[in-house]
Write a structure and sequence with these properties.
By secondary structure, the chain is of the alpha+beta class. Helix content is 28%, strand content 24%. A hairpin with a 2-residue loop joins strand 22 and strand 23. Bound molecules: ligand MTE, hypoxanthine and dioxothiomolybdenum(VI) ion.
Length: 774
Amino acid sequence: MKHHTVTKGFTHQNQKHDSAVKQVTGRAEYTDDIAEPVGTLHAYLGVSNVAHAKLNGIDLSKVRDADGVVAVLTADDIPGANDISPTGRNDEPVFPTEKIEFHGQPLFAVIAETRDAARRAAEFAEVDCDVLPHAIDPVSARDAGMPLITEPLKLERGDIDKGFATAQNRIKGQVTVGGQDHMYLEGHIAFAVPGEDEDVVVHCSTQHPSEAQHMVAHVLGVPSNAVVVNVRRMGGGFGGKESQMNLFCAVAAIAAKKLGRPVKIRPDRDQDMTATGKRHDFVIDYDIGFDNDGRIEAVSGEFAARCGYSSDLSGPVTDRALFHADNAYFYPHVRLTSRPQKTNTVSNTAFRGFGGPQGVIAAERMIEEIAFALDKDPLDVRKANFYGDGTDGRNLTPYHQSVDDNIISRVVEELEESADYRARREDIRAFNAKGGILRRGIALTPVKFGISFTATHYNQAGALIHVYNDGSIHLNHGGTEMGQGLNTKVAQVVAEAFQVDFNRIKITKTTTEKVPNTSATAASSGSDLNGMAALNAAEQIKARLVTFAAESRGVSEDAVSFGPTGISIGTDVVPFDKLVKEAYMARVHLSATGFYKTPDIHWDRAAGKGRPFYYYAYGAACSEVTIDTLTGEYRVERADILHDVGRSLNPALDKGQVEGAFIQGMGWLTTEELWWDDEGRLRTHAPSTYKIPLASDRPREFNVKLADWSENREMTIKRSKAVGEPPFMLGISVFEALSMAVASVADYRICPRLEAPATPERVLLAVERLKAGA
Ligand code: MTE
Ligand code: HPA
Ligand code: MOS
């Protein structure tokens, strides 16, 4: 449908986040703000203080006797299944009964009149166990003969033996890349209110209400229709609330049903950090063959990941690492394998990029190796290896999907120009040649990221729209709001469909009562999937209104159209609310459910072939850093970004996503370090020891642009592209710039092989190593 004037609040324009004012003024409601009914109890987890042991029993008498304690919940109190594994592997108990598998593992829950009482009492348990040897990282776990936690994946194309045999150069190496804590502002929380019969309502902070619902039903041993899960918004999720809330929802719901009183559980930050999973750290072994021009001939790589004690989402996470081990580069002959390694640590989980960033790090390390070996600008090596334009036989990925929407060359060239990369690099090399204590580095790195859940069935969504007879619109969809602006974007789509003001649409909480069987709001797919589902619902109601309008005025349906001042019916223009009222009086159905599933995708994991991704999002970043070679300290002087979101649904929100993702990616690779001691205890379990980037760590100069010429060639919602995760990997440019600055101390003759995170200590060690000529 055509519209002539553009009304504020439609798509492709800046529209502020619907909760922005509420969030900055403290009026936005989070789970912990919901008024507690009289009688509300509070739960706290009791945890293990060994990493691996045979569990003989727990003496809870002192816990039960403590002040304010109402009950203690153990595995014996679970009426249904003692299992919350998201993939149905039955390897993740709510509370273990036979063995302890990581330091900090929840063993029981205390339910008390106050949270403080529950928390204090949890310390009084006496755990009887026989300590067993533990292995906490993927290499020692492999050496100790621990099993893989889930089936590995192999991606293969071409003939790598032949590729290596004919390549002029070959380098083998290893890169270690650290994990990351989600550090959402709002931690995990669940608040369960018991109802009649088997019913329970759980308010919680989750990216995946349907899974929380199914898990609660599973542990209670009741059908899913007895359980309602609600989430108005989260104070950040970043993947950490895709599966990890299951534990908290289960505990709150079991306690609430057992005691017949509302129960809330909210771990403190230390427990949130020790008892819930994080980004997987990886140890990646690579082997590359390349010619004298820097063109890659063959790649083989093994990707070992610290998965923790249970599978959780480690299968799809390690799969996605392989799917992104090519980044934007064509590998003529390739073999990639994953090693999802079981370890005696907390079970690692989704985190922005979902394994993809770890794959991209491997690709960028290989580029660096080639550049240093051949004494080339890494950007030239990158360009020499980009996927082709479809005419040169250089478009097939290791998983046999053809990259048909490739725009990486244009993105990179535009950024190279606007960031003045070449001239600045010359300046920086001249500066470094003076041999001072401060050294500078610059790097321009690309990103290509595949959009769709790799588990094809997750690529579906539903929505529910009610138009009330006063013309106000109530919108629900299956997605959840975690700060990314999904609700705003979906409301923009609906406002545009009805050609009504944005404010006419009420954005409401996500609830399993309104839209069933939803997927996690994850894989950056929120607006792609839910925007389409909501549009589908809106189109149904519109079609009924068009039919009604045409019949009521005796014109053909072609003569009816929605415009910003109302609905044109022949020569008449009727305001939206007036037409709605008329339609209601004529008994027109003014509610609709919408549905969407992504077309044309398929994936055969056993064969390692298919089209797992509907399309790709692209981007590039150019970062400049200065390091102090005496202390290893550094700062980011400037970052320039050009990122592709297709035709943006909302450029202001998308820019915010790009900026936030870049900083979060930079934090992952620089200051955020997870450190376990020999006992397997996470010692970086609070902001005092775990350093996320501060406002003062942002680039001194920060130029962020969306590629406004880009348009999705697939029929996505308004031709936009997903934005949530891809720009996370732009932070890699900071890591690569640090590497260049370090390399300068040995006149760029040695690849620094920096490990991530490149903390000041690691930068200093690398500087010393290179000075010693290693
Ligand atoms: N942005 C904010 N502000 N808070 C978040 O928790 N999560 C990220 C990204 N951006 C997140 C965020 C992750 S991991 C994903 S998968 C997407 O948002 C999910 O939302 P979307 O699919 O609607 O983009
Ligand atoms: N991305 C993010 N979350 C997921 C995925 C994925 O591909 N698969 C299952 N959960
Ligand atoms: Mo995002 S890691 O897919 O929640």
